[in-house]
Amino acid sequence: MTHQDTHDGHRPGTTIRILLADDHALVRRGVRLILDREPDLEVVAEAGDGAEAIAMARTQDVDLAVLDIAMPRLTGLQAARELTALKPGLRILMLTMHDNEQYLFQALKAGAGGYVLKSVADRDLVAACRAAMRDEPFLYPGAVTALIRNYLDRVRHGEEAPEQLLTPREEEVLKLVAEGHSSKEIAELLFISVKTVQRHRENLLHKLGLRDRLELTRYAIRAGLVEP
Question: Is Nucleotide-binding found in the keyword set (predicted)?
Answer without folding.
Answer: no
